[in-house]
Amino acid sequence: MAPVLELRHITCGYGPEEPPALRDVSLALEPGERLALVGPNGAGKSTLFLAALGLLPLSAGEIWLEGRRVELKKRRELDRLRSSVGLVFQNPDDQLLAPTVEGEAAFGPRNLGLPPREVSARVDRALAACGLENYRRRSPHQLSGGEKKRTALAGVLAMEPRVLLLDEPAAGLDPEGRRQLEQQLDRLRARGIAVLLSTHDVDFVWRWADRAAVLAGGRLAAAGTPEEIFDRCGHLPGWNFSPPMIYWIGKELGLSPLPRSREELEQRWKRNAPC
Ligand SMILES: Nc1ncnc2c1ncn2[C@@H]1O[C@H](COP(=O)(O)OP(=O)(O)OP(=O)(O)O)[C@@H](O)[C@H]1O
Ligand SMILES: [Mg+2]
After folding, report:
1. Which of 32, 39, 147, 242 could serve as a FRET partner for 166 with CA atoms 20 to 30 Å apart?
2. How many C-beta neighbours within 10 Å does residue 228 have?
3. Is 0.90 topped by the overall pTM?
């Protein structure tokens, strides 16, 4: 089956005076896949998301959606891309435009030309999924940072995209907000929606991702399973993250398969420990 979204040899940046922020980056997202994008500040993660949605002009490269090249100069092709791929920006203030939370969730489905009853059903579902039922009439700009993030996510979920791009969705969320986000991601997974998300949280990558891609200095430094990536920690140029503690403990204890979370490690430990 063709990748649901594919970047082929993308080079792009923020103007002719600036050096390119991405250089010859290729990345494919398979249907239903959970792919984590990691890399230091300034590596090009947010730029990659903007490029993937045709929001930055490419100086080289192509975007492919479900096995077909997207002709980025054609309005209809951009619409095809943006109705299938939803992006939640790193900074929700760059995204939120409507005067109310409800209006924010309705904006995309209305733009798709859906009938009012369908728009309203989608808004209800998206607000419920993000725990925002009681925020309907609030102004997005008077919400807290975490509430704004949830509102931006609701706006994208209401489009019912087949691919979700989430730029640091957990940054700034409290532990409960993170837990709810992870539940939300599990539900999306169950519906077969592919997710590419950027994060600096290596524990989350370990727990959640099928695959990880490392950007450094605008180039793709590595891509592989989280285990392959963390096995190479310290050997990847420009990437100086430490591996997750659970990965490290699992390796030290020689466990196979490696546990993905503290809870899993505890359960396996209790099962095997002599008592
Ligand atoms: N609007 C802009 N104009 C000019 N240069 C920009 C702009 N936005 C980003 N850049 C530059 O592009 C490069 C990549 O930035 P980008 O925001 O994609 O990094 P990032 O990996 O998302 O970092 P972070 O982890 O801090 O979010 C950086 O060198 C940055 O300074
Ligand atoms: Mg960023």
Report:
1. 242
2. 12
3. yes
How far is it, in rounded angstroms, from Cα 34 to Cα 19?
30
Strands 34-38 and 194-198: parallel
Parallel, antiparallel, or unpaired: how do β-strands 163-167 and 194-198 relate? Answer: parallel
199 lines ligand 1 (CB under 6 A): no
Q: How much is the pLDDT for 14? A: 96
The CB-based long-range contact list for 115-124 (8 Å cut-off, 24+ gap) reads: 122/158, 122/160, 123/158
Residues 6 or more apart from 8 whose CB is under 8 A from it?
A: 26, 61, 62, 63, 64
Least confident window among 5-9, 163-167, 231-235: 231-235
Does the beta carbon of 90 lie inside 6 Å of ligand 1?
Answer: yes
DSSP codes, 68-104:
EE--TT-HHHHHHHHHHEEEE-SSGGGT--SSSHHHH
Q: Walk me through the domains of the chain, giving residue ranges and CATH numbers.
A: 1-91+196-241 (3.40.50.300), 244-275 (no CATH)
6/4 Cα distance (integer angstroms):
7
